[in-house]
Fold each of these.
Amino acid sequence: MKGRVTDAAFNDVVEIQQYIANDNPVAARLVRTCIEEAVKRIFRFPLIGSEGKNHSVRVFPVRPFPYLVFYTVGRGEVIIRNVRHAGRIRP
């Protein structure tokens, strides 16, 4: 199955890293690495995440950090849509 990261998701990760790097560049690199590892895991196991409120979008946590990867699976492709801080998600 092919995997793709949208520009929006890529920009989310860049913004997250830049925000954290203002206080701690080492932590920023660690968070980015964990996000990238979560994305790789999603590409290998597309159904690993749980279904979100919109049943076409799946959600996978970035452990041990409070970030969530939002993605869709379909027609032989996994698409990473967004990466968000869990505190920014509305219930």
Note: The chain has two helices and five strands.
Amino acid sequence: MLTDLSPLSGTPNRKFPSGFTLIELLVVIAIIAILAALVLRTAGFVQTKGATSRAQAEIAAISTALESYKVDYGDYPTNSTPAVNTTLINSLINSNATYNPLGKVYLSLPKNSIAGTLILDPFGTAYNYQYPGNTNRSGSNFFDLWSFGGNSGNSNKWVKNW
């Protein structure tokens, strides 16, 4: 058997097969999995933040439309059932509705924002509208308009006009 002798130690140089060990592969896979989890979590947070911002903008637009409606009719559309905003849609969007005898369109929304008799928020649930509102405010004649923000159990995460 022929072996090369190292000039310094006098021991033979052994050639090891090239490649990765199982441990090295598992460590790399674990690092990639951790990085992927961090990126996906951040992407989910960004999506939720964007939907919340859009819901705030839509609530502001609906509030402005309601104020314009009040200027024309002297009062907001009455609706005592918060989960159903049929009255709100008929008053603000439909120009031929009985709630809107002047035939004005106060609010224009994308088609994917309306599902039957509901105005949908970016989370896919209906906006809630109630007049007269239950929220304590100084003065009178206020309405409540809110979205559950994708989390109906935690009222701190709701997007609301109060």
Note: The beta strands are 114-115, 118-119, 128-130, 144-147, 159-160.
